[in-house]
Amino acid sequence: MPLAFSASQQLQLEVSHQPERLAAYLDDQDRVVKALLDPSQLEALGQGRYRYSVTHLQVFQLQIQPVVDLRTSLEPGRLVLEATDCELEGLGLVDDFQLTLGSWLAAGPSGLEGEATLAVEVSQPPLLKLIPAKVLEATGRSLLAGILLGIKGRVGQQLLSDFQTWCQEH
User: Fold this and answer.
1) What sections of 37-159 are H helices per DSSP?
2) From CA 37, how far away is CA 20, in angstroms rounded?
3) CA 122 → CA 1, 2, 50, 97, distances in Å?
């Protein structure tokens, strides 16, 4: 039986300086993605496509590193970011790992709004067979929630800082 766990995070972030320009800023997909995610772990694959090497994660005695292919798309005033593929380095022979990411950022009347949902489905690795599935799923939910909180923190600091720089440049 596969393990399945997920986490989601919502964002309501007031922007006091020129919030009316947020929609134009979100149109600069490449810049926004680089502000959202650590650029040193990000590789551009083409227009609106990226590969992101997530920071190494420790799960009990295992070191793992998800490598996620991402795709961005634009809707009016909204940037959508989705995972299209994912490999998991460090778990050995786990060939049924599936990661789902659905997220968006939008320009609201007074700032940024957004939501992200991250889900994983994977068989229990042989090295962790003695640990109950419920414990592994709770740990997985906690890890995913931590990843999303980290990205939310980057939005609140790095993305807003980059938005202010963008406003000065444009």
Assistant:
1) 133-154
2) 24
3) 9, 5, 23, 4
Strand partners, 71: 49, 82
CA distance linking residue 115 with residue 113, whole number of Å: 7
Do 11 and 147 contact (CB within 8 A), yes or no? no
Q: Token pair of 147, please? A: 């990843």
Quick one: tokens of 153? 């923190």
Task: Supply the pTM of this predicted model.
Answer: 0.84
CA-nearest of 59, 105, 61 to 81 is 105
Report yes or no: 133 and 1 within 8 Å, Cβ to Cβ. yes
- Two tokens, residue 93: 């022979």
Cα separation of 147 and 132, whole Å? 23
The residue length of the chain stands at: 170
The token pair at 111 is 């700032």
pLDDT, tens digit, 9 for 90 and up, residues 62-94? 677 788 999 999 988 899 999 999 887 765 556
Selection from 119, 66, 127, 120 nearest residue 96 by Cα: 120
Q: Compute the 3-state secondary structure of the chain and give helix, strand, coil in percent, each to the nearest 5.
A: 35, 45, 20
